[in-house]
Amino acid sequence: MMLDSDAKDGLEPDESQPGDGADDVLAHNQRLLDEFLAQGDAEAPSIEDDLPPEHRSGVVAVVGKPNVGKSTLMNAYLGEKVAIVTPKPQTTRERQLGILTRPDAQIVFVDTPGIHLARTRLGEYMVAEATGTIPDADVVLFIVDVSEMPTRADEIIAGLIARQAQGKAILALNKCDLAGEEEINAHSAAYSALLPQAEPVLLSATEGTNRDQLLERLVKELPNGPRFYPADQLTETQLRESAAELIREQVLLMYEQEIPHSVAVTVNEFKERDEDMTYIAATIFVERESQKRIVIGSGGQALKELGQRARSELETMLGSRVYLDLWVKVMKNWRKDEHALRRLGYTTKR
What we know:
By secondary structure, this protein is an alpha/beta fold. 35% of the residues lie in helices and 20% in strands. It has helices at residues 22-39, 70-78, 121-131, 152-164, 181-194, 211-221, 239-254, 289-296, 301-318, 338-343, and strands at 56-63, 96-102, 105-111, 139-145, 168-174, 199-202, 264-274, 277-286, 321-330.
């Protein structure tokens, strides 16, 4: 089903060419080529831009069980939404790269899916994505929810870090704003016992408590080295992938029960029609016909609202108006089907 309630006139791509003949077209293309060659490398972003000799750089793997604030913390450091954030667990499905550049350091955050007991092929993929970052990271940032006692999942993650981490481990005791002093003391001791070698930092990613102090500790543990990315780059995620994630985020926020985790989103078309209009066509995949009916809603009203919410987020990200086509299709049991997962961009290991 297509969401066409926001259709506007005059949005078809402009197929016209400069001039009326082949000579005009060739002359136009030659002028563009000449202008490009004349620019040379003047506008190329500089990575080695007068860096101090003590400049630090490295990879920080952000790990923890679902819904402990990993994406929230990374977004707070970057000042922009790079990873989607919802109250629902297992929001992040793939590694999200966030690049924080300062005059003295460049931190490459790798925000990982929450480590949990996998019950589907998709779950196996998510856990593999998360655990695969630990051995290669310069620093492993283990984020926990200090407002509650450690769970079996926390114990398993602490064990993985103890066995696999090659770099420094830091324990971020997040959500300290949600607990009293006695609870924090008791819970902090329990978490520290799981991973004694990790430096503990009491934290509130949302309120900002000790956020700057944690950042300085992370920088301190990075090795000396050059930048890996230009100073103005925030992520490696492509725009169409970010668009798919923003649409999926609105599904997570709008729908309850089984719908959110049964949904995958792919962007089929992503075109800039002019400086102030981007056309995006996306497909929302669900596992059953009953889920499709829920996503669409009576008379298409739920899908219309979803499109309006997603379009608002997309326009903020892109800085232009967005014409959004949404389709809903059924791909039966895609989370358990390895071929379907590959089609949707999730590569699993046997």
